[in-house]
Amino acid sequence: YQAFWEQGIAVDVIDSEKDLSKYKLVVAPMLYMVRSGVGENIEKFVQNGGTFVTSYWSGIVDENDLCFLGGFPGPLRKTLGIWSEEIDGLYDGETNRIKVVGNNELDLRGEFEAKELCDLIHLEGAEALAQYGSDFYAGRPALTVNQYGDGKAYYIASRNDQAFHRAFFEKLADQLSLKRATGGLLPKGVSAQVRTDGTNEFLFLMNFSNQIKDINLNGQTYRDLLTNNEALGTVSLDGFGVKVLK
């Protein structure tokens, strides 16, 4: 959620049994319990062109807390194109590294820190976008994507640092052309969210740092509701400042 909030991308929090058809992207981290029909709903969503992201510790049990037979991640296995063999629990303070594979479809780059839980998976049609860097499972997939029907399903195999989520979800938002509140990326420490009365849109800008921050409005023209001045081009927020633009 934080990775989207930092980009000014609005997020709905929904029940796993809701209709998914109106979304471009559905993120379901640690979907441990998969109720009857949910796996099929997700499969249909991806087949019809949606993008799905989930993580380690998903597809483990049904609504009665009974483990799925035939391998994890249970009903999500075909959609994700992977099989989870086992999960490695790291000691406190122990870490691994995940290394992004060059020339991947997201143009993701770099190395990131993994901690606490690392899923050991096998590819069953999916493509590895990143691999583990150390321990007995070095070189095994740590991030995968599976082209399924007209959509894609991503699997994040380890519990990673926030730097990974920022990088991964920024690239994913670019690929899917997700709507950002200001139309572009935000300075660190600034949040931007849009609300509407059904006719007008209101952009709420908040600076959570003590430094002046400049925000690019990306060609949009607004009216500053606190000063009644026109706002276009770039606006500046004082430390801990707030602007409401119509």
Describe the structure.
With 246 residues, the protein is mainly beta. 13% of the residues lie in helices and 39% in strands. The chain contains 4 helices and 14 strands. The strands form 3 sheets. Strands 1, 2, 3, 4, 5, 6, 7, 8 and 9 form a 9-stranded mixed beta sheet that branches. The chain has a 3-stranded antiparallel beta sheet with strand order 10-11-14, with no helix packed on it. It is globular, with a radius of gyration of 20 Å.
Helix/strand-derived category reads mainly beta
Give the mean pLDDT.
Answer: 97
What's the order of the H and E elements? HEHEHEEEEEEEHEEEEE
Radius of gyration based on Cα positions: 20 Å
State the end-to-end distance: 26 Å
Q: How large is the share of residues in beta strands?
A: 35-45%
According to DSSP, the number of beta strands is 14
Q: Please count the helical segments.
A: 4
Low-confidence stretches: none
Query: Major β-sheet, in short?
Result: 9 strands, mixed
Helix percent band: 10-25%
Overall geometric form: globular
SSE map:
Blueprint: H1 2-5, E1 25-28, H2 38-47, E2 51-55, H3 77-80, E3 82-89, E4 95-100, E5 111-123, E6 127-132, E7 141-148, E8 151-156, E9 158-160, H4 162-176, E10 190-196, E11 201-207, E12 213-223, E13 230-237, E14 242-245
Parallel strand pairs: 1-2, 2-8
Antiparallel strand pairs: 3-5, 4-5, 4-6, 5-9, 6-7, 7-8, 10-11, 11-14, 12-13
From the structure above, extract its key features.
246 residues; mainly beta; nine-stranded mixed β-sheet; three-stranded antiparallel β-sheet; 14 strands; 13% helix; 39% strand
